[in-house]
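Lecture notes, unit on protein representations.

Consider one protein chain, 83 amino acids long.
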Amino acid sequence: MARHETDIERKLQEMKARGWDFAIYYWNNYTELGQTKFFEALQYLASQSGKFTNNSEVDYFSFKTSHRISKMIPKVDAQVITS
């Protein structure tokens, strides 16, 4: 056992180094892919933002005064007045 101890120790160090190389290689690939997909999703969301406009918001100051007043006066049905 003592005769092979240095050989075993060297093999363990090589396997440890190989394992770290493997982990770092895949970490770099996954982070690069994740970053790419994140920015693609961000770009997609930014391109979709123009499609979601709030149509319920009306700028009442852009209407003419007469238009606003005519909306405030109720319409009277002609048949109600004659009866």
